[in-house]
Design goal:
The complex is a heterodimer.
Chain A: H1 3-13, E1 23-27, H2 36-47, E2 51-54, H3 61-70, E3 75-80, H4 85-98, E4 105-110, H5 117-122, E5 125-129, H6 135-146
Parallel strand pairs in A: 1-2, 1-3, 3-4, 4-5
Chain B: H1 50-53, E1 57-62, H2 67-79, E2 84-87, H3 91-95, H4 118-124, E3 134-137, H5 143-157, E4 165-168, H6 172-179, H7 186-203, E5 207-208, E6 210-213, H8 215-219, H9 224-244, H10 249-252, E7 256-262, H11 266-288, E8 299-304, H12 316-331, E9 335-338, H13 350-365, H14 380-403, H15 406-411, H16 414-432, H17 462-476, H18 479-493, H19 501-509, H20 514-525
Parallel strand pairs in B: 1-2, 1-9, 2-3, 3-4, 4-5, 6-7, 7-8, 8-9
Helix pairs in contact in B: 2-4, 5-19, 9-11, 9-14, 11-12, 11-14, 12-13, 18-19, 18-20
The chains are: A alpha/beta, B alpha/beta.
Chain lengths: 147, 534
């Protein structure tokens, strides 16, 4: 049974907007220029009802945390495909904590090897998404985290 | 009791949106459109004898960690019969940051080798004769600096510059759209590219000073049609710029080269290359009055794999790459890079890199597919799809023209948004099961997600070693020479009519770092401001 087919159909129909009322920041920390995933997820979250802000490329962890706080977002999604996810996620988490914003839900997408998942979860990451994952799963997972 | 797994349906629409006939016949083909191999209109290839005269260059992209690590991998690949090198650079080098820069520190040596100054390039090519191999650099924002360092390395090896063969990608327009390693705004970037092309035509006449690339736009979401259309449109923008700078199209066009992805739809890909080759030659004739046949030749390299490869059941990627490589051969590629099966999630191991290389060797020397030039030429289906492809590409190029040209489309973020929307569409089609990805949305096995036994890790000490070497060279180089060449570069940059390449080569010889050269120009030109549109 191909469950992804069913759930996507709902989103595409506009019937399901489980992220309505949520503000989400999608950030590209570091120098990585692969922004397809960031943009695709941003568009999908918007289609699911969220208000989405995208930082654009090459932002420092400090800049991303600053925008997250200024914009009062519920969640920050970091897109990283350069293999620097451990360093960059730790820095963003630390910057959010320094801004008294550790309650903002942190999620990560990109080229994340399975063996690094536990490490990222240990840094407080609530969702880790890779390219082969259907978008409805990403939306559902975030909706569950954000309540 | 188990029920059979859901099976996908076959459709007659290709991935690029072409109508593929169940049965094609002579009524679908215009014989006048086909021509002969090695002759205008070049549908059937640029050489009359195809690969029997010269096989494509087998060129595997690699680079990681320190120059020492990468030098070892290159020697391994050359020992195994690879015929050209292709240098993967780390992001700090690509974006013009020295390794100690706060923006760079966490990315040193991660996705490629760190080459911050000439001493690193000397190590990279230690024991490799630059006069005997061709080297391709995937470098764009800082391409002129890396090219300058390559010339300086050749000088140090005693290799005459005119013997050098290879390629710098040097295609900034697509960086703004898809790959993201831009540095300067559009205008000064175009100047730097024209400088390097015009200089290279004089000094390294066998070197390709640009590889106009559709590959990254494709991987970012564009269809095969859009990939070719955007690339040819960018190509025309470079030709216009070079002509503005006084270049002679008959001369510089001979050294323009192209670079594309090959994804899974076999006939789309074959048709794309045949159509693109025909169209480029036509554009040069009709727009610029180029009559020289060599200058009309569309020479291109390809990469097989990329986003068509997936993490679940990764060994299947070997099959995908094999099919894609066949499409590249039937499309008439001049060089081929086959991705390793594990590239969807890591830098390839030596084992996976070797399988990718062997895939090309098996196709080249065992399969026999390279014997006849354009072996699919004349096939009703292939010729019909080639015609359809050409029309579709021209239509997209017209849309860009109607918008106001590529530079405007990029500066406004219009093209970027178009590609992002297309990427979402591509993803949704996979999620809905309209596009089949075996092992991902059909025939998936969640118990066999990752069969890879071997994982690759960049030496965790690599970044530290790179930074130490960097500090050492800054301490030991001739400070006065470094300062003088940098000051000369800055003064030269102030005059738009001056070609900056000789100044960059002087900087390279003085062990001025990439970051220092870039900062000197940034101080005058500023940085590209990304138009963020969603």
């Amino acid at each position: 049974m191909n469950t992804s087919t069913d759930s996507t159909a709902n989103v595409a129909d506009g019937a399901a907007t489980p992220l309505r009322g949520k503000r989400i920041l999608i950030g590209k920390p570091g120098l990585d220029g692969h922004d397809v995933g960031a943009k695709v997820v941003a568009l999908a979250l918007r289609n699911a009802g969220a208000e989405v802000i995208y930082t654009g490329l090459r932002k420092s962890p400090q800049q991303i945390a600053r925008v997250a706080v200024d914009e009062g977002v519920d969640a920050v999604g970091l897109s990283i495909l350069s293999g620097s996810h451990k360093e960059l996620v730790a820095e963003v988490a630390a910057c959010l904590a320094a801004e008294d914003a550790a309650d903002i839900t942190l999620f990560v997408g990109g080229t994340i090897p399975a063996e690094d998942r536990a490490h990222l979860e240990g840094l407080g990451v609530k969702g880790i998404f890779t390219a082969d994952q259907p978008l409805p799963e990403v939306v559902a997972s975030l909706a569950a985290s954000l309540g | 009791m188990s029920s059979p797994a859901p099976r996908p349906r076959l459709t007659q629409t290709s991935a690029a949106g072409l109508d593929v006939p169940v049965r094609a016949g002579p009524d679908l083909v215009d014989p006048n459109h086909i021509g002969e191999p090695g002759q205008v209109p070049f549908t059937r290839g640029i050489f009359p004898d195809g690969y029997s005269g010269r096989l494509w260059t087998i060129r595997q992209y690699s680079g990681f960690g320190t120059a020492e690590d990468t030098n070892q991998r290159y020697r391994f690949l050359l020992d195994q019969g690879q015929t050209g090198l292709s240098v993967a650079l780390d992001l700090p080098t690509q974006c013009g940051y020295d390794p100690v820069d706060p923006m760079a520190r966490s990315e040193v040596g991660k996705v490629g080798v760190s080459l911050s100054n000439l001493s690193e390039m000397e190590i990279l090519f230690d024991g490799i004769d630059l006069g005997a191999i061709s080297t391709s650099f995937t470098i764009n924002g800082s391409a002129a600096m890396i090219y300058a360092m390559y010339l300086a390395t050749a000088d140090k090896q005693g290799v005459p510059r005119e013997k050098l063969t290879g390629t710098i990608q040097n295609d900034i327009l697509k960086e703004y759209v898809a790959r993201g390693t831009w540095i300067f705004p559009v205008r000064p970037s175009m100047r730097l590219i024209a400088d390097s092309i015009l200089y290279s035509n004089e000094v390294t006449p066998r070197f390709n000073p640009i590889s106009i690339a559709g590959a990254h736009v494709r991987d970012a979401g564009a269809t095969a049609v859009e990939e070719m259309a955007y690339t040819l449109a960018n190509g025309l923008a470079y030709v216009d710029e070079l002509i503005r700078r006084g270049g002679d199209a008959t001369r510089f066009a001979r050294r323009l080269s192209f670079f594309f992805y090959v994804h899974q739809d076999f006939f789309d890909e074959v048709a794309k290359f045949r159509a693109g080759r025909r169209l480029w030659a036509k554009l040069l004739r009709e727009r610029y009055g180029v009559t020289d046949e060599k200058a009309q030749m569309f020479r291109f390299g390809v990469v097989c794999g990329g986003s068509s490869l997936i993490a679940p059941q990764p060994m299947n990627n070997i099959v995908r790459v094999t099919i894609e490589t066949m499409a590249a051969v039937f499309g008439g590629a001049q060089s081929i890079f086959t991705c390793a099966f594990d590239e969807a999630f890591q830098i390839p191991t030596e084992t996976s890199a070797e399988i990718a290389l062997r895939t090309q060797q098996i196709l080249a020397y065992e399969s026999g597919i390279a014997r006849s030039v354009d072996a699919l030429g004349g096939s009703y289906v292939v010729e019909h799809l080639t015609d359809q492809m050409e029309t579709a590409i021209e239509k997209v190029m017209q849309e860009i023209d109607d918008y106001g040209g590529v530079e405007k489309a990029i500066e406004d973020g219009w093209l970027q948004l178009r590609i992002a929307e297309r990427a979402l569409e591509r993803k949704q089609k996979i999620d809905r099961g309209e596009t089949v990805v075996v092992g991902q949305n059909f025939f998936r096995r969640d118990d066999a997600k990752n069969e890879v036994a071997e994982t690759f890790h960049v030496d965790p000490e690599a970044a530290r070693k790179v930074m130490e070497k960097y500090e050492r060279i800054r301490d030991t180089r001739d400070a006065a020479a470094a300062e003088k060449t940098l000051a000369d570069l800055g003064r030269a940059a102030d005059d738009d009519a001056v070609n900056l390449m000789p100044y960059l080569v002087d900087c390279a010889h003085a062990y001025v770092t990439v970051g220092e050269m870039v900062d000197t120009l940034k101080a005058r030109w500023g940085e590209f401001q990304e138009p963020v549109r969603l």
